Amino acid sequence: MAAVATAIVSDLHLGTVSGADLARRPRALERLLAVADEADRLVLLGDLIELRERPIAAVLEDVSPVLAALGTATAGKSVVLVPGNHDHQLVAPALERERLAGVGPLAIAGEHPPRPGDLAERVAGLMPRSELTVAYPGVWLRDDVYVTHGHYLDAHLTVPRVECLVAAGVERFGTRIGPDGPTSAADYEAIFTPMYALSHAVAQNARAHPVTRRNNLSRRVWTLATDGSGSTAARLRGALVGRAAIPAAVAAINALGLGPFKPGISAEELRRAGLAAIGDVAGRLGVEADHLIFGHTHRAGPLPSDSESDWTLPNGGRLTNSGSWVDEDVFLNGDGAANPYWPGRVVWLDDSGPPRLVAALEADDLS
Predict the structure, then answer these.
(1) Structural domain for 299, as ranges
(2) Strand, helix or coil at 146?
(3) pTM of the entire predicted model
(4) Residue 26: in which H helix or E strand, if any?
(5) Quick check: 247 pLDDT over 70?
C-alpha cells in the first residue's frame, strides 16, 4: 500500500475584514495550493472561514475563489474539515439535528455529514471533486494521532481573554456542569455553543463590509499592556494597564468565582497556559494519543527553542500546534520563521513517525 502524506493546516480565517488572512494574497495562496497539491490528504483544522465579523453571504463571496482553488488542488483527494470556534456554524446544524434525533452523546471523533442548505454543504459545493468530510470535535488520523482545533481549551485557560471569561460565566450560571468541570465533548458544547450561536447571530446582522475588525478586544488589551515602542506615553499606558487595571479586574473576576484567572498576559504566559489547558482537555476527554495536534492559539510549536517537557502530556503523548495563516502583526517582531507566531505553518504527517512542523511561507509571501 502506498504511503499517505497528510498536510494539516489550521486557522486560515478566510474573509477577515482586516485582510490579515494571508491565503487571499496571491503569493501565500500559491504556497498553500502547493501544499495541497503535494499532500495525499488535506486536513483543515478549524477556523477555515471567519464567520464572526460579517454575514455569511458576504464572506463566501470573498473567499469562494480560494476554496475553489483548494478544491482544484485536492481533486480526487480526501479533505477533512474540522470546524473550530470561528467557523462553528460549519457543524452546528448537523449537531442540532443529531440532538433532536436523539443520537447518542457527542463522541470525541466522528463524522457529521452536512445537508443541502448547510454552510458546510455550500463549502463542499465549491470543492466538488474533493472527497470532503466534516469531523468534529476531532478525528483520529492514525491510531496514535488525534487532531482537534483546540477551542475547548478556552474553558481552562487562565489568561483572562474575553472568550474565556464568557465561557466561565456560561459554565457556572448557564449549565448543570458540576464543580469538577467538563468531562465530555457534550459538556464543552454546553459551555461554548451559546456563545458561538450569539456571535454568529450578531454577525448575520452586521454590515457586509464593516469599517473595523470585530472580536479583537483581547488583542487590543494585550497591545496596550505590552507596548514596547519606547515612548514615555506608551510605557506609562502599558504600566497602567498591565500592572494595575488587569490585576484589579482579574481579582474581581476571581472573587465572583469565575476563575482562577491570572493577571499575566505575556507571550510566555500565553504559551504556558495554552499548553496546560489543552493538556487538561485531553485528560478530561480521555484522549490517549501519542500525538495530539491542535491549532486555535496561533502559537506554533514545538520549535527548536522550546522545552520538550512543556509539549509533553501527562500520559507521555506529544503536543504539536499548527500555528495560523494570519498576519499577526501584534506578535511579530521581524524575526521571521523563528517567531512562534510566524504565519503559514503546515504539519506534515506520514504513515508512521512523529508529525513534522514546517514553515511554508517566507517574508516575501506576506506581501
Answers:
(1) 6-153+289-366
(2) strand
(3) 0.89
(4) helix 26-38
(5) no
